[in-house]
Specification:
This protein is of the alpha+beta class. It has 11 helices and 8 strands.
């Protein structure tokens, strides 16, 4: 709004679609004219052609239109070298970890690196499908995002801290937020199911006294169910020595649960914001549950700190007025069901 003349033109444009009651700098309070769904879409397109990003929200019976400048312009040519290098490094670190899990040592015998293939390929398939699920649905919903960035970490347990994609534009609606939010966890979950099943088929049973080393893993509902399907009734005094594929599947379920926790910038946080908005009591309740569970595993408290540092406040979406459809509500419920299925209250040390 550089001049009075431009401001008057802008107000005239907005008034064609929006009955203005009050103007505050770059905010307009009033009511979208009927049919408001069509006028909202047309006003959004008109304002974007002027270089503005409009945000539509609702307070009681009034609509609020807030204008922001464009925050992203599509680059003519994008380089994918960073994505590729990070993926190759993550492939290497997970191969190394997978090899060591199998008793190999690629630093002494280079051929031992192949022992890490079942773990590495399985884990990267789950993590990769999760992020690509986000990527393709984001593109469908007209959200500008990057390709996945994998995080190679020489951690002796997993060899990676996962992967992520970056959003480079605002999310157009609550509907889009739910669909982009659930796409990753749902895709990763579906890929983890057969990997875990066949990994359990390849796993072995050993007597407890024969197991000298190993990490005791807690159960989620889905992992416990798959275990019972494969092994039926386990006798007393024995445990399952997981095949690397099964361990990768367990990690995949765990990562899915972490992402679906309804807080902040997590996938579950996106979905919760689309359903509840900035409902502080809900956020406090989720934090309370995780803090309570930290008496079983201190990692939950660490996760609360990490998510809080990244911000518990969710950025607005462009259209917070249009109500969600039954399909969107179903997808949100589906996300909650997947969270319940994959969430291990005590991930490490059994429960």
């Amino acid at each position: 709004m550089a001049s009075n003349h431009q401001r008057e033109d802008l107000i005239f444009l907005i008034n064609n679609y929006f009955e203005i009651h009050q103007i505050d700098d770059k905010s307009f309070v009033g009511k979208l004219r009927e049919p408001w769904e069509i006028n909202l879409r047309n006003l959004k397109m008109a304002l974007e052609s002027y270089g503005f990003i409009p945000f539509f929200s609702k307070k009681k019976n009034l609509h609020i239109l807030t204008l922001a400048g464009k925050i992203y312009k599509e680059e003519k040519k994008e380089s994918y070298w960073v994505n590729l290098i990070l993926f190759l490094l993550t492939l290497l670190t997970t191969l190394l970890v997978g090899s060591f899990h199998q008793g190999g040592n690629p630093f002494l015998r280079i051929s031992d690196i192949f022992l890490g293939i079942p773990f590495s390929f399985s884990l990267l398939a789950i993590l990769g499908s999760h992020e690509l699920g986000h990527y393709f649905i984001a593109k469908k919903e007209k959200v500008s995002v990057t390709l996945p960035y994998f995080l190679p970490v020489p951690h002796p347990l997993i060899g990676t801290m996962g992967a992520f994609i970056k959003m480079r534009s605002v999310v157009p609606s609550k509907k889009s937020l739910i669909r982009v939010g659930i796409a990753g966890p749902l895709t990763g979950f579906l890929v983890a199911l057969p990997i875990t099943y066949f990994g359990l088929k390849l796993s072995k049973i050993a007597r407890l006294e024969e197991i000298r080393y190993g990490l005791s893993l807690g159960n989620s509902l889905i992992f416990s169910t798959l275990t019972k399907i494969v092994f039926k009734d386990l006798p007393q005094g024995v445990d399952i020595v997981l095949h690397p594929m099964a361990f990768a599947g367990w990690l995949g379920f765990f990562v899915t649960a972490l992402n679906l926790i309804p807080l902040g910038q997590l996938d579950g946080g996106h979905i919760a914001y689309a359903i509840f908005g900035r409902f502080k009591i809900f956020i406090i309740a989720v934090l309370g549950v995780l803090i309570y569970l930290s008496k079983y595993w201190m990692g939950w408290l660490f996760w609360v700190i990490i998510v809080s540092l990244l911000s518990l406040k969710h950025p607005p979406v462009q259209d917070e007025i249009t109500p969600l459809t039954k399909k969107d509500i179903f997808l949100a419920i589906l996300a909650f069901v997947i969270l319940l299925l994959t969430f291990p209250p005590k991930p490490f040390g059994g429960i």
